[in-house]
Amino acid sequence: MSELFADLSDSVSFMSSDDAGPRYQEDWTGAFGAPAPVLRPRTVAALAETVRRLHGAGLRIVAQGGMSGLVGGGAPMRGEVVVSLELLNRIESCDLYGATMTVQAGATLQAVQEEAERQGLFYPVDLGSRGSCTVGGNIATNAGGNRVLQYGMTRASVLGLEVVLPDGTLVSRMGRVAKDNAGYDLKQLFIGSEGTLGIVARAVLRLHPLPRQRYTVALGLQDLDQVLRALAACRADFGPMLTSFEVMWRDFVDFVARGLGIGRDPFAGACGHVVLLELSCYDRQPERDEARIMEALQALSENLDTPHVVVAKSLSEAAELWRMRDASGEAARHLGAYLSFDVSIPAGELQDCLPRIYAGLDAIDPALRRLTYGHLGDGNVHLLVGCAGPAAERVEHLVYHEVMRCGGSISAEHGIGLEKNQAFQRLYPAAELDAMRRIKLAFDPGALLGRDRVFGLS
Q: What was the pLDDT predicted at 149?
């Protein structure tokens, strides 16, 4: 390997599998991974040449971003070479008039958010791992997060891409315009492809006006029916001001706030569900937005018959509320052996689907611990179930069966990766899977890039 790249030592950093260590071997879950050599190109040209040489040598490649993934997409398997984008981390430019930003794939989400804000603009994609996840990884997985309700998935924030194909060919369509119907929209193939069709090198991101004021509001509600009524009312009352509608079930709140001491339950255990709203305001006279919000919250409290409404009075109070919601990773790690479900369920099916899942879990083992939370404004529910051994397979089949039965998705935002590829192949129509395989093999006939992620080709 070192001989293959000896003449590129100035533009490609090389680490042997012994030197690389766990940082490049495992994603956040630690469920997958093996020792692997690591190549870190410093330029886009070096990235393309690196992939070209690996492809020519018939070596299998896995691309890596911030390694904050949860399904093993970036974790190397035996015989693979890691191509890490972490040294391609520059924010190249920001177009104030076009409201776009051009960045390299290794730039962190937080760096992009902060640079946009320095320019008086706003990048809306937001995840709990913002400090470590990268733009390239967000694009490869079509990351969702806390503001999908208003701004959509990462797909909606990408105008242009530069991608290295599996054979090292560089495809550059760094468009900076919203309207571009010249031929196929190639970028959409790569967004959400989990690094199996090409490696994102650079991107043009769509920015938005920076909100003049943000409000964080906590609602305490008793049951799911009340939660769904609140969602409908908030959409009607706040319109585009409503950028987040996050829900934490009582099991999650108790485990995080009481059990782990992270954040604070604003209603001290009095409510079955805690809802967090983020409201983004643009009025030059903020008192008008505040008056409108307070009036709407008063009406919401009355119509839902709940006195449990808390408006954060400071940034620190808002951060305290969000800290509890952002603690899902810590919660998972304290569960011991667990299964993590990242599913989408149509809003109209939630009240039937979730009780069936809970009843099924009780039938498997009443002692199974479960934690439920999610971006309910877009139908994304996260369910953590503490289990291991024979029960785990039964739990997975139960949850995925019920989700598919109601027209949902087994992956709302985390992707398929290595973790879900068998379930994906088992549950989805053969014609759909065959079409995806055709696309994969058209770009990568030897299946050398991200092999066995999404679906198995071995």
A: 86
